[in-house]
């Protein structure tokens, strides 16, 4: 699975992107967030408050209960502030 | 005009040139509305650094613009959003809409900028003269402005 | 900026130049909204001839712009209305508003163009390719658009 | 009193402006319209339907019951169509 991080999520994780093997028991965005929070102190800091995190699966905004699969591109970021 | 013209770029844009490109040689446009968002120097701001999600950002802008195109009888629509490091006074975003009728152009322009604020994957980091940095937080007022359109207002 | 900049003229105007004049060298503007009204070639129109009431027209525009200036926190406001003979594709009117905040700029721009339609002494005569002439009649929809603002909408 | 005519009012009257002596019994815009309608066939055509006519007294929009005096500048025209 390809993971992308943006804004302060990227800064806290310390990576702009990474490839991971998706654990069998991770089925949705919320589960992926919980799993990622255990990967490193940086990940833990980035995902400490899941309410601050937004996600996109294959470049579409995704809710916490959206399903994820091994071939997906999943991105995590703060609420957007364009315009 | 086949449809909206969407660009995400580091380079500045030129309102006059973009407006001319939409209207030149045409006699079916009654109104051309535009909005340019600029970088303000609030609180000692030295620069805004705009990050985006290449690929998804363009898709999100295409989707928002296609929605405006379907909702109002537009004859032209240009959306340009800059990324990278922008200093106070620099233009950040351009929304330009053309229609036979003024209300359609004005409403589509307001719709697009409201949705851009809440639905396009851009993130702004503020750099201050004293070295501080801060990620801009999303505003509830922006969500409210975008939600107006969803309720058919 | 001391207040609104109002002009009634035969000459064309340049959106890019007017917009630059309002924003150049400033770092307190967050949004710049504009509306350009153009002459459409409906029904074989050859030209629009715009007549005004010299003196009163400028006063009416000043009054409308002063009202927008009082109602929204604007940092700049330019209104240019052309008179004389205009061919299809030609720009007729420009409304340009600048503010720290996008909503103020967008709303003031829409307010001004709605009021210009109903409250400024201009009259349009249509000249057609076949020699016919017709004075444009005032539209109930324009009155309704202007009335929205009076009710505080 | 200085009178100004615009758009089709001007075309029908056949004058862009004229100076008139104000009759003593003409006190308001409506009275002035009724008086002007008697001045010439052109005036009669222009002022045939007072509901189609708008007025300004001293360059401010004026209702039919607005008072007029000898020194005023009064203009007549159709509903405006700018913008």
UniProtKB/TrEMBL annotation, chains A, D:
Top-level taxonomic group: Bacteria
CDD domains assigned: Ubl_MoaD
InterPro entries: MOCS2A, ThiS/MoaD-like
PANTHER family from the UniProt entry: MOLYBDOPTERIN SYNTHASE SULFUR CARRIER SUBUNIT (PTHR33359:SF1)
Family the entry assigns: Belongs to the MoaD family.
Official protein name in the record: Molybdopterin synthase sulfur carrier subunit
Organism encoding this protein: Falsiroseomonas oleicola
Automatic annotation (TrEMBL), chains B, C:
Keyword list, A-Z: Molybdenum cofactor biosynthesis
InterPro entries: Mopterin_biosynth_MoaE
Protein name as annotated: Molybdenum cofactor biosynthesis protein MoaE
Record organism: Falsiroseomonas oleicola
Record Pfam families: MoaE
PANTHER family in UniProt: MOLYBDOPTERIN SYNTHASE RELATED (PTHR23404)
